[in-house]
Sequence to fold (233 residues):
Amino acid sequence: MLTLLTFPPSFDTPSHSPFCTKAIALLHLSGEAWQPKYLTNPTKMPLGRLPVLRTQDGQTIPDSAHIQAYLETKGHEFDKGLSQQDRAHSHALIRMTEQHLTAGMAHERWLRNDCWPTVRSAFFGELPAVLRLPIATMMRAKVRRGLTSHGIAQFSEEDRLTRLGKDLSAIKATLNGKPFLFADHPTAADAAIAPVLDMIRNLPCDTGLRRLVQENAALMAYVHRARAALYPQ
Fold:
């Protein structure tokens, strides 16, 4: 049986990482037998992060894109039936979401003072009390440096929402009334993108980004369809 090393669930999603949730969705779509193993400290993992897939023969495969590629070598075609143009569009939309919209979601979770206490409790609550605050504070500072280097943390709230709103508009335009992004069934793009939208709508405090998703009927309906199709029950 395959084993997915993943961050644990939080905020009504199968993992508090969108990349772990993407891997979970891909495994669910593949039909492979698998089990989760929840970790909170990925520092000893390949690449120093999660998810990591452990195969029956002892391979460890880090990164959700590498996990997808491994599953595809086993015959699971996540973009079956898509044209070359749609595959290119899917690739671009995934990269937009993973490199930009996910950073916007992380900004709201980690850097907003009204969200941070709930996030800290969810992500670090199982640590021993003596370690909880110093480790959470250290990780928050690390995330702040990363998001500042990325650029998303340097913008004003208005600029950030304008930029992220364009990402959401691109997703909505791609849906264009379809049940899923590129077909009447989930594809790789849905596995990558729907969890990010789901995590934005479930942000633990009221933010402009959360409202952009929650007040968009098309995106909310899509998230509910995707949850039913992509998350193990």
